[in-house]
Amino acid sequence: MSGDALIAGEENVNASERASYVPTWYTATMVPASARGPLTFDLDVDVCVVGAGLAGLTAAREIARRGWSVVLLEGRRIAWSASGRNDGFVLPGFAASMDRLISRVGLDHAKALWALSEMGLKYVRTTIAEARMPGVAPIAGWLKASKVDNGDEMSATVELYGEELGAEVEAWSTERVRETLKTNHYFHAMHLPRAFHIHSLNYALGLAELAEAAGARIFEDTPALAIDVEGVRKRIVTPSARVRAGHIVLAGNVHLGALQPRIAGTVVPIWSYTITTAPLGPRLAEAIAYRGAVTDTDLANNHYRIVGNDRLLWSGHTTTWEADPKRYVGRLKADMMAVYPQLGDVEIEHAWSGVLGNALHRMPQIGELSPGLWLASAFGGHGLNTTAMAGNLLAQAVVEGDDTWRLFAPFELVWAGGRLGRAAMQVFYWWFNGLERFEARAARQREAEDQRVAGRAPRRHGGDEMDVEARLGAVVPRADLPEEPALAELPADPIAPREAGAPESFARADLPDVSVVEDDAARSRPVPPARPKRPV
Hints:
34% of the residues lie in helices and 19% in strands. By secondary structure, it is α/β, with parallel strands linked by helices. The protein is globular. The protein has helices spanning 25-28, 54-65, 98-105, 107-131, 151-164, 174-180, 200-214, 261-264, 282-287, 329-339, 383-400, 418-456, 463-471, 516-524; strands spanning 43-50, 70-73, 89-90, 139-145, 170-172, 189-197, 217-219, 226-228, 234-237, 242-250, 268-277, 293-295, 303-307, 311-319, 348-358, 365-370, 373-377. The protein contains 14 helices and 17 strands. Helix 2 (54-65) runs parallel beside helix 7 (200-214), helix 2 packs parallel to helix 11 (383-400) and helix 4 packs across helix 11.
């Protein structure tokens, strides 16, 4: 299917389903999943979770596993938005860099946060393995490749991750990177062998089944219209029923706008765009000899991985408004061709966008807003591990009174600036993308120039090269040069002071014939000390 024929609107995956998913490669390869009906009767439970994305599903499962009654309300379908449309990268860490976290909260606090992020990664991996989830297909490895020649900076980052944070991490040289990713687009890289990538929609569907098996009740097509958090028992109003609960967990990210506009206003909505190719056959292996996930940026461009054995999933570009993903097919394809021109012309079969939420500090929002009202939001950039982490932290907090969530207290709710903030963020993304492209192009140009200079160097220096040049007649070997004349045999200085009464002449004194080779050899000898100036 060509890019022009791509369908970007919403449509049913199955005609018998009430709700709909946006068509993506994920929905084209999803496991069979029946729709859950809407809530049509009143309920009284211990906990009501709003939002059936990955954070809400994890929280509901873990609360139910601890023996509490829990209901999960979803306005559309399970994982219909970012949770089921993301790149599928399961990485430790956060969208904010660890350097920035250390500067903000100190090394010990940052190490505790890092350990929580690794807990989220391990939770996803263990859950998939123990439940034998179908269609999730975890593949190990994540490579953070650099588009500029910054070996010292990369080494410092690897040292920070390995020695200070205790991560399993590797530094890859430019040569190793280019043996694996067959392009001159990249230089050094950081490799996390314990990270992995998955089919995120199938993981969410499997997680929903596990939550229900633990005792949670999930209702789709049931938006929360209003909440009343006063008193011991909270109230949630839906189109056809009401829920009473001792605790409410808001896990709706940017989609909390109508329900909690002040909370939704603390995140910037970011749309990213993704394509997948038709099967590429053997030419894909000739370009990419790596089955893990690859990132070459700190923001949007580019993130990619091999899916379905011989397809390439490629994402990049961001907007702070929703745009038709068909408009970005050409740009994403051009990015792919710039990095891997050997792929030739590729056919694009799927294109879609997904919206995520980012706080200005680029950290998750996890904690208690008021007694019994909890928030899990702003997972943009590292959602698969941090949603798992947040779901576990809130389950422990609600049921057991654990206060580990307070490690996120420094990352408070900050108003994101509304439309002006979104416009400023869009300008920043454009500027950052342009700067990255400029620096990457400059790095490759410097490398090419260094290679040209190195190619000319053997013709100028070295013993063996000198002998070759001598045989070609370029120079005369030193052994064949005449001996240096004695100092007494040298001609007098034509401008040296003469004896009194002798006429001064500035005409060139008669000199013996000196070859160009001898002259060059003389100039290659150490320069004698400067003569004292002639008295005036």
